[in-house]
Amino acid sequence: MEKKFRTKELKTHICPFTLGMMPPASICKTETNEQKLHKIANELLLTERAYVSRLDLLDQVFYCKLLEEANRGSFPAEMVNKIFSNISSINAFHSKFLLPELEKRMQEWETTPRIGDILQKLAPFLKMYGEYVKGFDNAMELVKNMTERIPQFKSIIEEIQKQKICGSLTLQHHMLEPVQRIPRYEMLLKDYLRKLPPGSPDWNDAKKSLEIISTAASHSNSAIRKMENLKKLLEIYEMLGEEEDIVNPSNELIKEGQILKLAARNTSAQERYLFLFNNMLLYCVPRFSLVGSKFTVRTRVGIDGMKIVETHNEEYPHTFQVSGKERTLELQASSEQDKEEWIKALQETIDAFHQRHETFRNAIAKDNDIHSEVSTAELGKRAPRWIRDNEVTMCMKCKEPFNALTRRRHHCRACGHVVCWKCSDYKAQLEYDGGKLSKVCKDCYQIISGFTDSEEKKRKGILEIESAEVSGNSVVCSFLQYMEKSKPWQKAWCVIPKQDPLVLYMYGAPQDVRAQATIPLLGYIVDDMLRSADLPHSFKLTQSKSVHSFAADSEELKQKWLKIILLAVTEILVLEENFCLSSHHLHIPHVLLPSTKRSNEAALPVSY
What we know:
Layout: H1 2-14, H2 33-71, H3 77-84, H4 87-107, H5 116-122, H6 129-134, H7 136-149, H8 151-161, H9 171-195, H10 203-239, E1 253-262, E2 269-277, E3 280-287, E4 294-302, E5 307-310, E6 319-323, E7 328-332, H11 336-370, E8 410-411, E9 418-419, E10 426-430, E11 436-440, H12 442-449, H13 453-460, H14 467-471, E12 474-484, E13 490-497, E14 503-507, E15 517-520, E16 525-527, E17 538-543, E18 546-551, H15 555-569, H16 572-577, E19 587-588, E20 606-607
Helix pairs in contact: 2-3, 2-4, 2-8, 2-9, 3-7, 5-10, 7-8, 9-10
Protein backbone atom coordinates (compact mmCIF):
# COMPACT_ATOMS: atom_id res chain seq x y z
CA MET A 1 0.00 0.00 0.00
CA GLU A 2 2.87 2.30 0.86
CA LYS A 3 4.53 1.36 -2.43
CA LYS A 4 1.41 2.27 -4.39
CA PHE A 5 1.17 5.69 -2.69
CA ARG A 6 4.75 6.46 -3.53
CA THR A 7 4.13 5.62 -7.19
CA LYS A 8 1.28 8.13 -7.35
CA GLU A 9 3.40 10.72 -5.60
CA LEU A 10 6.14 10.18 -8.17
CA LYS A 11 3.67 10.63 -11.03
CA THR A 12 2.44 13.87 -9.49
CA HIS A 13 6.00 15.12 -9.22
CA ILE A 14 6.75 14.34 -12.88
CA CYS A 15 3.54 15.84 -14.30
CA PRO A 16 2.74 19.04 -12.37
CA PHE A 17 0.96 20.57 -15.40
CA THR A 18 -1.93 18.10 -14.77
CA LEU A 19 -2.81 20.40 -11.88
CA GLY A 20 -3.17 23.40 -14.22
CA MET A 21 0.47 24.49 -14.50
CA MET A 22 2.14 25.17 -17.86
CA PRO A 23 4.52 22.41 -19.02
CA PRO A 24 8.26 23.14 -19.43
CA ALA A 25 9.35 24.15 -22.97
CA SER A 26 11.30 20.95 -23.37
CA ILE A 27 8.14 18.87 -22.81
CA CYS A 28 5.99 20.96 -25.25
CA LYS A 29 5.47 19.51 -28.67
CA THR A 30 7.88 21.17 -31.16
CA GLU A 31 6.50 22.86 -34.28
CA THR A 32 7.03 20.78 -37.41
CA ASN A 33 8.62 22.11 -40.60
CA GLU A 34 5.28 21.78 -42.39
CA GLN A 35 3.62 23.95 -39.74
CA LYS A 36 6.37 26.56 -40.02
CA LEU A 37 5.96 26.71 -43.81
CA HIS A 38 2.19 27.13 -43.42
CA LYS A 39 2.78 29.93 -40.87
CA ILE A 40 5.08 31.83 -43.29
CA ALA A 41 2.60 31.41 -46.17
CA ASN A 42 -0.24 32.64 -43.97
CA GLU A 43 1.81 35.67 -42.87
CA LEU A 44 2.43 36.49 -46.54
CA LEU A 45 -1.34 36.40 -47.16
CA LEU A 46 -2.25 38.54 -44.13
CA THR A 47 0.36 41.21 -44.89
CA GLU A 48 -0.71 41.21 -48.56
CA ARG A 49 -4.31 41.98 -47.58
CA ALA A 50 -3.19 44.91 -45.43
CA TYR A 51 -0.87 46.13 -48.20
CA VAL A 52 -3.64 46.08 -50.84
CA SER A 53 -5.84 48.25 -48.58
CA ARG A 54 -2.98 50.80 -48.37
CA LEU A 55 -2.51 50.74 -52.14
CA ASP A 56 -6.24 51.37 -52.52
CA LEU A 57 -5.91 54.39 -50.18
CA LEU A 58 -3.10 55.84 -52.30
CA ASP A 59 -4.72 55.08 -55.65
CA GLN A 60 -8.46 55.51 -55.11
CA VAL A 61 -8.44 58.21 -52.41
CA PHE A 62 -5.33 60.43 -52.45
CA TYR A 63 -4.62 60.15 -56.18
CA CYS A 64 -8.24 60.44 -57.35
CA LYS A 65 -9.13 63.37 -55.04
CA LEU A 66 -6.04 65.35 -56.05
CA LEU A 67 -6.61 64.61 -59.74
CA GLU A 68 -10.21 65.85 -59.46
CA GLU A 69 -8.99 69.14 -57.97
CA ALA A 70 -6.25 69.43 -60.60
CA ASN A 71 -8.84 69.07 -63.36
CA ARG A 72 -10.61 72.12 -61.87
CA GLY A 73 -7.45 74.12 -62.62
CA SER A 74 -6.14 74.53 -59.05
CA PHE A 75 -2.76 73.01 -59.95
CA PRO A 76 -1.25 71.00 -62.86
CA ALA A 77 -2.50 67.42 -63.25
CA GLU A 78 0.96 66.55 -64.53
CA MET A 79 2.37 67.20 -61.05
CA VAL A 80 -0.14 64.80 -59.47
CA ASN A 81 0.78 62.10 -62.02
CA LYS A 82 4.46 62.56 -61.22
CA ILE A 83 3.81 62.18 -57.49
CA PHE A 84 1.87 58.90 -57.79
CA SER A 85 3.77 57.51 -60.79
CA ASN A 86 2.35 54.07 -61.76
CA ILE A 87 0.58 53.40 -58.42
CA SER A 88 -2.63 52.45 -60.29
CA SER A 89 -0.82 49.65 -62.16
CA ILE A 90 0.80 48.40 -58.94
CA ASN A 91 -2.60 48.42 -57.19
CA ALA A 92 -4.25 46.53 -60.05
CA PHE A 93 -1.52 43.84 -60.07
CA HIS A 94 -1.76 43.14 -56.34
CA SER A 95 -5.55 43.41 -55.93
CA LYS A 96 -6.51 41.49 -59.10
CA PHE A 97 -3.70 38.93 -59.44
CA LEU A 98 -1.31 38.31 -56.54
CA LEU A 99 -3.78 38.59 -53.62
CA PRO A 100 -6.50 36.37 -55.26
CA GLU A 101 -3.85 33.72 -56.09
CA LEU A 102 -2.61 33.68 -52.49
CA GLU A 103 -6.19 33.54 -51.13
CA LYS A 104 -6.98 30.54 -53.33
CA ARG A 105 -3.74 28.72 -52.46
CA MET A 106 -4.24 29.05 -48.69
CA GLN A 107 -7.72 27.51 -49.08
CA GLU A 108 -6.10 24.55 -50.91
CA TRP A 109 -3.08 24.27 -48.61
CA GLU A 110 -3.93 20.74 -47.43
CA THR A 111 -3.58 19.41 -50.98
CA THR A 112 -1.12 21.97 -52.45
CA PRO A 113 1.23 23.20 -49.68
CA ARG A 114 3.44 25.55 -51.73
CA ILE A 115 3.78 29.24 -52.70
CA GLY A 116 6.98 29.20 -54.78
CA ASP A 117 5.12 28.44 -58.01
CA ILE A 118 2.80 31.47 -57.55
CA LEU A 119 5.66 33.85 -56.78
CA GLN A 120 7.83 32.47 -59.59
CA LYS A 121 4.98 33.09 -62.05
CA LEU A 122 4.16 36.61 -60.83
CA ALA A 123 7.54 37.89 -59.57
CA PRO A 124 8.60 39.27 -63.01
CA PHE A 125 5.70 41.76 -62.75
CA LEU A 126 7.39 43.28 -59.70
CA LYS A 127 9.77 44.98 -62.16
CA MET A 128 7.04 47.63 -62.49
CA TYR A 129 8.21 48.86 -59.06
CA GLY A 130 11.36 50.16 -60.76
CA GLU A 131 9.47 53.16 -62.17
CA TYR A 132 7.89 53.98 -58.79
CA VAL A 133 11.15 53.67 -56.84
CA LYS A 134 13.11 55.66 -59.45
CA GLY A 135 10.74 58.64 -59.13
CA PHE A 136 10.29 58.34 -55.36
CA ASP A 137 12.76 61.11 -54.37
CA ASN A 138 11.23 63.49 -56.89
CA ALA A 139 7.72 62.60 -55.68
CA MET A 140 8.63 63.38 -52.05
CA GLU A 141 10.06 66.76 -53.08
CA LEU A 142 6.95 67.59 -55.14
CA VAL A 143 4.63 66.78 -52.20
CA LYS A 144 6.71 69.04 -49.94
CA ASN A 145 6.81 71.96 -52.41
CA MET A 146 3.13 71.77 -53.43
CA THR A 147 2.00 71.52 -49.80
CA GLU A 148 3.98 74.67 -48.97
CA ARG A 149 2.93 76.71 -52.01
CA ILE A 150 -0.58 75.59 -53.04
CA PRO A 151 -3.35 75.94 -50.39
CA GLN A 152 -5.85 73.75 -52.30
CA PHE A 153 -3.34 70.87 -52.49
CA LYS A 154 -2.52 71.17 -48.79
CA SER A 155 -6.21 71.29 -47.83
CA ILE A 156 -7.07 68.03 -49.63
CA ILE A 157 -4.07 66.20 -48.14
CA GLU A 158 -4.89 67.32 -44.60
CA GLU A 159 -8.59 66.44 -45.00
CA ILE A 160 -7.79 62.86 -46.09
CA GLN A 161 -5.13 62.43 -43.39
CA LYS A 162 -7.78 63.14 -40.72
CA GLN A 163 -9.84 60.13 -41.85
CA LYS A 164 -9.74 56.91 -39.82
CA ILE A 165 -8.47 54.89 -42.78
CA CYS A 166 -5.19 56.86 -42.69
CA GLY A 167 -4.42 55.72 -39.15
CA SER A 168 -3.03 59.16 -38.20
CA LEU A 169 -0.23 58.75 -40.77
CA THR A 170 0.86 61.22 -43.45
CA LEU A 171 0.68 60.85 -47.23
CA GLN A 172 4.50 60.53 -47.33
CA HIS A 173 4.33 57.61 -44.90
CA HIS A 174 1.82 55.75 -47.07
CA MET A 175 3.83 56.51 -50.22
CA LEU A 176 6.80 54.75 -48.62
CA GLU A 177 4.88 51.46 -48.25
CA PRO A 178 5.34 50.28 -51.89
CA VAL A 179 9.07 50.91 -51.49
CA GLN A 180 9.14 48.83 -48.28
CA ARG A 181 6.97 45.97 -49.62
CA ILE A 182 9.58 44.34 -51.93
CA PRO A 183 12.18 43.88 -49.12
CA ARG A 184 9.37 42.32 -47.07
CA TYR A 185 8.77 39.71 -49.79
CA GLU A 186 12.50 39.00 -49.86
CA MET A 187 12.66 38.47 -46.08
CA LEU A 188 9.65 36.09 -46.00
CA LEU A 189 10.89 34.11 -49.01
CA LYS A 190 14.36 33.67 -47.48
CA ASP A 191 12.73 32.35 -44.30
CA TYR A 192 10.51 30.05 -46.39
CA LEU A 193 13.52 28.60 -48.25
CA ARG A 194 15.39 27.94 -44.98
CA LYS A 195 12.49 25.79 -43.76
CA LEU A 196 11.93 24.10 -47.15
CA PRO A 197 13.68 20.73 -47.67
CA PRO A 198 16.06 20.88 -50.71
CA GLY A 199 14.24 17.96 -52.36
CA SER A 200 10.84 19.69 -52.12
CA PRO A 201 8.85 20.17 -55.37
CA ASP A 202 8.61 23.89 -54.46
CA TRP A 203 12.40 24.38 -54.03
CA ASN A 204 13.32 25.43 -57.58
CA ASP A 205 10.35 27.80 -58.00
CA ALA A 206 11.00 29.44 -54.62
CA LYS A 207 14.71 29.86 -55.40
CA LYS A 208 14.02 31.49 -58.81
CA SER A 209 11.45 33.81 -57.19
CA LEU A 210 13.99 34.92 -54.58
CA GLU A 211 16.55 35.80 -57.27
CA ILE A 212 14.05 38.06 -59.09
CA ILE A 213 12.71 39.65 -55.88
CA SER A 214 16.22 40.27 -54.47
CA THR A 215 17.13 42.33 -57.54
CA ALA A 216 14.04 44.51 -57.10
CA ALA A 217 14.66 44.75 -53.33
CA SER A 218 18.13 46.23 -53.80
CA HIS A 219 16.57 49.26 -55.56
CA SER A 220 13.90 49.60 -52.85
CA ASN A 221 16.47 49.43 -50.04
CA SER A 222 18.39 52.25 -51.71
CA ALA A 223 15.21 54.38 -51.84
CA ILE A 224 14.46 53.58 -48.16
CA ARG A 225 17.94 54.75 -47.17
CA LYS A 226 17.42 57.96 -49.13
CA MET A 227 14.04 58.50 -47.44
CA GLU A 228 15.55 57.95 -43.99
CA ASN A 229 18.32 60.42 -44.86
CA LEU A 230 15.71 62.95 -46.06
CA LYS A 231 13.76 62.56 -42.78
CA LYS A 232 16.94 63.20 -40.82
CA LEU A 233 17.70 66.30 -42.92
CA LEU A 234 14.20 67.62 -42.19
CA GLU A 235 14.75 67.07 -38.45
CA ILE A 236 18.04 69.00 -38.58
CA TYR A 237 16.38 71.72 -40.69
CA GLU A 238 13.84 72.23 -37.86
CA MET A 239 16.59 72.14 -35.21
CA LEU A 240 18.34 74.97 -37.09
CA GLY A 241 15.21 77.13 -37.03
CA GLU A 242 14.30 76.35 -40.69
CA GLU A 243 16.89 78.91 -41.77
CA GLU A 244 19.57 76.70 -43.37
CA ASP A 245 19.01 75.28 -46.87
CA ILE A 246 20.18 71.71 -46.18
CA VAL A 247 17.17 69.62 -47.33
CA ASN A 248 18.64 68.34 -50.57
CA PRO A 249 18.85 64.70 -51.76
CA SER A 250 22.57 65.22 -52.52
CA ASN A 251 23.28 66.10 -48.85
CA GLU A 252 24.08 63.18 -46.57
CA LEU A 253 24.56 63.39 -42.80
CA ILE A 254 27.80 61.65 -41.75
CA LYS A 255 28.09 62.50 -38.05
CA GLU A 256 26.74 64.91 -35.44
CA GLY A 257 27.51 65.63 -31.82
CA GLN A 258 28.51 67.98 -29.03
CA ILE A 259 32.03 69.43 -28.96
CA LEU A 260 33.97 72.13 -27.11
CA LYS A 261 35.61 74.97 -29.01
CA LEU A 262 38.78 76.57 -27.65
CA ALA A 263 38.70 80.37 -27.86
CA ALA A 264 41.55 81.87 -29.90
CA ARG A 265 42.60 84.45 -27.29
CA ASN A 266 42.31 82.82 -23.87
CA THR A 267 41.74 79.11 -24.74
CA SER A 268 38.54 79.01 -22.68
CA ALA A 269 36.26 76.14 -23.75
CA GLN A 270 32.84 76.96 -25.23
CA GLU A 271 30.04 74.46 -25.83
CA ARG A 272 29.29 73.93 -29.52
CA TYR A 273 27.54 71.38 -31.79
CA LEU A 274 28.74 69.96 -35.13
CA PHE A 275 26.78 68.55 -38.09
CA LEU A 276 29.10 66.83 -40.59
CA PHE A 277 27.68 66.32 -44.09
CA ASN A 278 29.30 64.85 -47.19
CA ASN A 279 30.05 68.35 -48.53
CA MET A 280 30.18 70.68 -45.49
CA LEU A 281 30.59 71.02 -41.73
CA LEU A 282 28.03 73.12 -39.83
CA TYR A 283 29.55 74.71 -36.71
CA CYS A 284 26.63 75.59 -34.42
CA VAL A 285 25.86 77.34 -31.14
CA PRO A 286 23.15 75.88 -28.84
CA ARG A 287 20.19 78.18 -28.18
CA PHE A 288 17.50 78.10 -25.53
CA SER A 289 14.43 76.03 -26.38
CA LEU A 290 11.56 74.62 -24.30
CA VAL A 291 10.97 71.81 -26.82
CA GLY A 292 13.86 69.78 -28.25
CA SER A 293 17.39 70.80 -29.17
CA LYS A 294 17.82 74.01 -31.15
CA PHE A 295 20.94 75.51 -32.69
CA THR A 296 22.11 78.56 -34.60
CA VAL A 297 24.65 78.04 -37.37
CA ARG A 298 27.74 80.12 -36.70
CA THR A 299 29.82 78.97 -39.71
CA ARG A 300 29.60 76.70 -42.74
CA VAL A 301 32.98 75.13 -43.51
CA GLY A 302 33.20 73.49 -46.96
CA ILE A 303 34.84 70.06 -47.26
CA ASP A 304 36.71 71.30 -50.35
CA GLY A 305 40.11 72.45 -49.08
CA MET A 306 39.53 71.24 -45.50
CA LYS A 307 42.44 69.83 -43.46
CA ILE A 308 42.42 68.00 -40.12
CA VAL A 309 45.35 68.30 -37.71
CA GLU A 310 45.71 66.54 -34.33
CA THR A 311 46.86 69.08 -31.72
CA HIS A 312 48.36 68.76 -28.22
CA ASN A 313 47.36 71.01 -25.35
CA GLU A 314 48.47 70.15 -21.79
CA GLU A 315 45.63 72.09 -20.20
CA TYR A 316 42.95 70.86 -22.64
CA PRO A 317 43.34 67.20 -23.72
CA HIS A 318 41.70 65.44 -26.73
CA THR A 319 42.02 68.46 -29.08
CA PHE A 320 42.23 68.66 -32.87
CA GLN A 321 42.05 71.40 -35.48
CA VAL A 322 39.69 71.76 -38.45
CA SER A 323 41.11 74.15 -41.03
CA GLY A 324 38.93 75.25 -43.94
CA LYS A 325 38.73 78.07 -46.48
CA GLU A 326 36.06 79.81 -44.42
CA ARG A 327 37.46 79.34 -40.90
CA THR A 328 39.91 77.42 -38.68
CA LEU A 329 38.53 75.83 -35.49
CA GLU A 330 40.40 74.28 -32.57
CA LEU A 331 38.07 71.74 -30.98
CA GLN A 332 38.10 69.58 -27.85
CA ALA A 333 36.38 66.18 -27.75
CA SER A 334 34.91 64.60 -24.61
CA SER A 335 37.40 61.69 -24.68
CA GLU A 336 40.29 60.28 -26.69
CA GLN A 337 37.90 57.82 -28.36
CA ASP A 338 35.49 60.64 -29.28
CA LYS A 339 38.40 62.63 -30.72
CA GLU A 340 39.57 59.66 -32.84
CA GLU A 341 36.02 59.08 -34.13
CA TRP A 342 35.68 62.74 -35.19
CA ILE A 343 39.10 62.79 -36.90
CA LYS A 344 38.30 59.54 -38.71
CA ALA A 345 34.84 60.74 -39.87
CA LEU A 346 36.22 64.09 -41.06
CA GLN A 347 39.18 62.56 -42.90
CA GLU A 348 37.06 59.88 -44.60
CA THR A 349 34.58 62.58 -45.71
CA ILE A 350 37.43 64.70 -47.14
CA ASP A 351 38.89 61.65 -48.98
CA ALA A 352 35.48 60.69 -50.43
CA PHE A 353 34.92 64.29 -51.56
CA HIS A 354 38.26 64.38 -53.40
CA GLN A 355 37.57 60.99 -54.94
CA ARG A 356 34.29 62.29 -56.39
CA HIS A 357 36.17 65.27 -57.82
CA GLU A 358 38.55 62.91 -59.58
CA THR A 359 35.61 61.66 -61.66
CA PHE A 360 35.35 64.75 -63.83
CA ARG A 361 39.16 65.18 -63.96
CA ASN A 362 39.47 61.62 -65.31
CA ALA A 363 36.67 62.31 -67.79
CA ILE A 364 38.58 65.31 -69.14
CA ALA A 365 41.86 63.37 -69.25
CA LYS A 366 40.16 60.48 -71.05
CA ASP A 367 38.58 62.89 -73.50
CA ASN A 368 42.00 64.45 -74.21
CA ASP A 369 43.48 61.01 -74.88
CA ILE A 370 40.81 60.05 -77.39
CA HIS A 371 39.58 63.33 -78.82
CA SER A 372 41.22 66.72 -78.74
CA GLU A 373 39.04 69.43 -77.17
CA VAL A 374 37.73 72.29 -79.27
CA SER A 375 40.33 75.05 -79.14
CA THR A 376 39.40 78.56 -78.00
CA ALA A 377 39.67 79.84 -81.57
CA GLU A 378 37.28 77.13 -82.80
CA LEU A 379 34.59 77.54 -80.13
CA GLY A 380 31.22 77.75 -81.84
CA LYS A 381 32.77 77.00 -85.23
CA ARG A 382 33.24 73.25 -84.80
CA ALA A 383 30.87 70.79 -83.12
CA PRO A 384 32.39 69.49 -79.86
CA ARG A 385 32.56 65.93 -78.56
CA TRP A 386 30.03 65.67 -75.69
CA ILE A 387 31.25 64.27 -72.37
CA ARG A 388 28.91 61.38 -71.47
CA ASP A 389 26.54 61.86 -68.50
CA ASN A 390 27.86 58.75 -66.72
CA GLU A 391 31.46 60.00 -66.92
CA VAL A 392 30.88 62.78 -64.38
CA THR A 393 29.13 63.08 -61.02
CA MET A 394 29.43 66.86 -60.63
CA CYS A 395 29.30 70.08 -62.66
CA MET A 396 32.55 70.51 -64.62
CA LYS A 397 32.48 74.26 -63.93
CA CYS A 398 31.31 74.89 -60.33
CA LYS A 399 32.06 71.29 -59.18
CA GLU A 400 28.73 70.95 -57.32
CA PRO A 401 27.43 67.32 -57.30
CA PHE A 402 24.55 66.44 -59.63
CA ASN A 403 21.23 65.05 -58.39
CA ALA A 404 17.90 64.16 -59.98
CA LEU A 405 15.98 67.10 -58.49
CA THR A 406 17.76 70.40 -58.05
CA ARG A 407 21.01 70.03 -60.01
CA ARG A 408 20.53 68.09 -63.23
CA ARG A 409 23.00 67.54 -66.07
CA HIS A 410 23.16 69.86 -69.11
CA HIS A 411 25.64 69.99 -72.00
CA CYS A 412 27.42 73.08 -73.26
CA ARG A 413 26.89 73.11 -77.05
CA ALA A 414 30.23 74.87 -77.58
CA CYS A 415 32.75 72.81 -75.55
CA GLY A 416 30.68 69.65 -74.79
CA HIS A 417 31.22 69.77 -71.02
CA VAL A 418 28.55 68.52 -68.60
CA VAL A 419 27.38 71.42 -66.42
CA CYS A 420 24.53 72.29 -64.05
CA TRP A 421 21.61 74.62 -64.92
CA LYS A 422 23.23 77.56 -63.20
CA CYS A 423 26.46 77.22 -65.19
CA SER A 424 24.58 76.67 -68.48
CA ASP A 425 22.12 79.56 -68.23
CA TYR A 426 23.62 81.32 -71.25
CA LYS A 427 22.97 81.37 -75.00
CA ALA A 428 25.30 82.19 -77.86
CA GLN A 429 25.17 82.00 -81.67
CA LEU A 430 27.12 78.97 -82.91
CA GLU A 431 28.52 79.01 -86.46
CA TYR A 432 28.52 75.22 -86.84
CA ASP A 433 24.77 75.22 -86.07
CA GLY A 434 23.90 77.88 -88.65
CA GLY A 435 24.11 80.83 -86.23
CA LYS A 436 21.36 79.38 -84.05
CA LEU A 437 21.19 80.53 -80.38
CA SER A 438 22.24 77.53 -78.29
CA LYS A 439 22.81 76.77 -74.60
CA VAL A 440 26.45 77.28 -73.57
CA CYS A 441 28.44 77.49 -70.35
CA LYS A 442 29.59 80.79 -68.85
CA ASP A 443 33.24 80.41 -69.99
CA CYS A 444 32.28 79.72 -73.61
CA TYR A 445 29.70 82.52 -73.56
CA GLN A 446 32.31 85.08 -72.51
CA ILE A 447 34.77 83.86 -75.18
CA ILE A 448 32.20 83.77 -78.01
CA SER A 449 30.35 86.98 -77.10
CA GLY A 450 33.33 88.94 -75.77
CA PHE A 451 31.48 89.96 -72.57
CA THR A 452 33.53 90.52 -69.42
CA ASP A 453 32.32 89.59 -65.92
CA SER A 454 31.18 93.16 -65.17
CA GLU A 455 29.36 93.45 -68.48
CA GLU A 456 27.82 90.03 -67.89
CA LYS A 457 26.35 91.16 -64.55
CA LYS A 458 24.70 94.08 -66.32
CA ARG A 459 23.41 91.81 -69.06
CA LYS A 460 21.92 89.28 -66.63
CA GLY A 461 19.89 92.03 -64.96
CA ILE A 462 17.93 92.14 -61.76
CA LEU A 463 16.72 88.53 -61.74
CA GLU A 464 20.25 87.40 -60.81
CA ILE A 465 20.28 89.27 -57.48
CA GLU A 466 20.30 86.70 -54.66
CA SER A 467 17.35 86.63 -52.25
CA ALA A 468 19.57 86.67 -49.15
CA GLU A 469 21.39 89.73 -50.52
CA VAL A 470 18.23 91.83 -50.93
CA SER A 471 16.32 90.42 -47.93
CA GLY A 472 19.07 91.49 -45.55
CA ASN A 473 18.83 95.09 -46.75
CA SER A 474 15.15 95.53 -47.61
CA VAL A 475 12.30 97.95 -46.96
CA VAL A 476 9.97 94.96 -46.45
CA CYS A 477 10.16 91.21 -47.04
CA SER A 478 7.96 88.21 -46.17
CA PHE A 479 6.11 85.23 -47.63
CA LEU A 480 2.92 86.13 -49.56
CA GLN A 481 0.45 84.06 -51.56
CA TYR A 482 0.66 85.18 -55.20
CA MET A 483 -1.59 84.74 -58.22
CA GLU A 484 -1.14 86.13 -61.73
CA LYS A 485 -4.38 86.49 -63.70
CA SER A 486 -6.25 83.15 -63.41
CA LYS A 487 -3.29 80.96 -62.53
CA PRO A 488 -3.30 78.96 -59.21
CA TRP A 489 -2.18 80.64 -55.98
CA GLN A 490 1.47 80.03 -55.07
CA LYS A 491 3.61 80.84 -52.06
CA ALA A 492 6.44 83.30 -52.85
CA TRP A 493 9.15 85.11 -50.90
CA CYS A 494 8.55 88.79 -51.74
CA VAL A 495 11.12 91.56 -51.22
CA ILE A 496 11.34 95.30 -51.87
CA PRO A 497 15.06 96.16 -51.47
CA LYS A 498 16.31 99.52 -50.21
CA GLN A 499 18.68 99.97 -53.14
CA ASP A 500 15.85 99.38 -55.64
CA PRO A 501 12.64 100.43 -53.81
CA LEU A 502 10.48 100.74 -56.93
CA VAL A 503 10.75 97.02 -57.77
CA LEU A 504 9.09 94.03 -56.07
CA TYR A 505 11.22 90.86 -56.29
CA MET A 506 9.60 87.40 -56.02
CA TYR A 507 11.60 84.30 -55.08
CA GLY A 508 10.61 80.68 -54.50
CA ALA A 509 12.41 80.67 -51.12
CA PRO A 510 14.44 83.09 -48.93
CA GLN A 511 17.80 81.58 -49.98
CA ASP A 512 17.22 81.41 -53.78
CA VAL A 513 20.02 82.84 -55.91
CA ARG A 514 17.69 84.02 -58.68
CA ALA A 515 14.33 85.80 -58.62
CA GLN A 516 11.44 84.05 -60.37
CA ALA A 517 9.91 87.39 -61.38
CA THR A 518 10.02 91.12 -60.71
CA ILE A 519 7.30 93.80 -60.81
CA PRO A 520 8.29 97.45 -61.41
CA LEU A 521 5.77 99.11 -59.05
CA LEU A 522 5.70 102.66 -60.43
CA GLY A 523 2.35 103.36 -62.10
CA TYR A 524 0.41 100.37 -60.71
CA ILE A 525 -3.04 100.82 -59.16
CA VAL A 526 -3.38 99.31 -55.68
CA ASP A 527 -6.69 97.76 -54.67
CA ASP A 528 -7.30 95.99 -51.36
CA MET A 529 -10.94 95.00 -51.91
CA LEU A 530 -11.79 91.54 -50.52
CA ARG A 531 -11.63 88.99 -53.36
CA SER A 532 -11.96 85.67 -51.55
CA ALA A 533 -13.33 84.48 -48.21
CA ASP A 534 -10.51 81.91 -48.11
CA LEU A 535 -7.88 84.66 -48.41
CA PRO A 536 -9.29 87.65 -46.48
CA HIS A 537 -6.02 89.59 -46.29
CA SER A 538 -5.60 90.02 -50.05
CA PHE A 539 -4.83 92.96 -52.33
CA LYS A 540 -4.29 93.51 -56.04
CA LEU A 541 -1.93 95.44 -58.33
CA THR A 542 -3.22 96.36 -61.79
CA GLN A 543 -1.78 98.24 -64.75
CA SER A 544 -3.30 98.00 -68.20
CA LYS A 545 -3.68 94.23 -68.79
CA SER A 546 -1.30 93.21 -65.99
CA VAL A 547 -3.04 91.90 -62.87
CA HIS A 548 -1.10 90.62 -59.83
CA SER A 549 -2.97 89.36 -56.75
CA PHE A 550 -1.38 88.89 -53.33
CA ALA A 551 -2.55 87.59 -49.94
CA ALA A 552 -0.84 88.02 -46.57
CA ASP A 553 -1.13 85.75 -43.51
CA SER A 554 -2.53 88.55 -41.36
CA GLU A 555 -4.18 91.97 -41.67
CA GLU A 556 -1.18 93.57 -39.95
CA LEU A 557 1.24 92.17 -42.53
CA LYS A 558 -1.10 93.18 -45.36
CA GLN A 559 -1.28 96.79 -44.15
CA LYS A 560 2.51 96.88 -43.84
CA TRP A 561 2.88 95.84 -47.50
CA LEU A 562 0.14 98.24 -48.65
CA LYS A 563 1.84 101.16 -46.93
CA ILE A 564 5.17 100.49 -48.68
CA ILE A 565 3.64 99.69 -52.09
CA LEU A 566 1.44 102.81 -52.05
CA LEU A 567 4.56 104.89 -51.50
CA ALA A 568 6.43 102.99 -54.25
CA VAL A 569 3.73 103.33 -56.91
CA THR A 570 3.66 107.08 -56.34
CA GLU A 571 7.48 107.34 -56.34
CA ILE A 572 7.44 108.88 -52.83
CA LEU A 573 9.48 105.99 -51.46
CA VAL A 574 12.45 106.57 -53.71
CA LEU A 575 12.33 110.30 -52.89
CA GLU A 576 12.37 109.54 -49.17
CA GLU A 577 15.26 107.12 -49.64
CA ASN A 578 17.26 109.89 -51.31
CA PHE A 579 16.25 112.44 -48.61
CA CYS A 580 15.27 115.08 -51.17
CA LEU A 581 12.36 116.20 -53.37
CA SER A 582 12.71 117.19 -56.98
CA SER A 583 12.24 120.85 -57.77
CA HIS A 584 10.06 120.03 -60.75
CA HIS A 585 6.51 118.70 -60.51
CA LEU A 586 6.05 114.91 -60.72
CA HIS A 587 2.81 113.60 -62.19
CA ILE A 588 1.66 110.69 -60.01
CA PRO A 589 -0.65 108.02 -61.50
CA HIS A 590 -4.07 107.12 -60.12
CA VAL A 591 -3.87 105.36 -56.77
CA LEU A 592 -6.76 103.53 -55.12
CA LEU A 593 -6.27 103.96 -51.38
CA PRO A 594 -7.21 101.04 -49.05
CA SER A 595 -10.96 100.47 -48.90
CA THR A 596 -11.15 101.58 -45.25
CA LYS A 597 -10.06 105.10 -46.33
CA ARG A 598 -11.74 105.29 -49.73
CA SER A 599 -14.41 107.97 -50.22
CA ASN A 600 -17.33 107.77 -52.61
CA GLU A 601 -15.49 109.95 -55.06
CA ALA A 602 -13.09 108.53 -57.65
CA ALA A 603 -9.39 108.73 -56.83
CA LEU A 604 -7.70 111.82 -58.30
CA PRO A 605 -4.18 112.08 -59.71
CA VAL A 606 -1.74 113.72 -57.31
CA SER A 607 1.27 115.87 -58.17
CA TYR A 608 4.10 117.55 -56.30
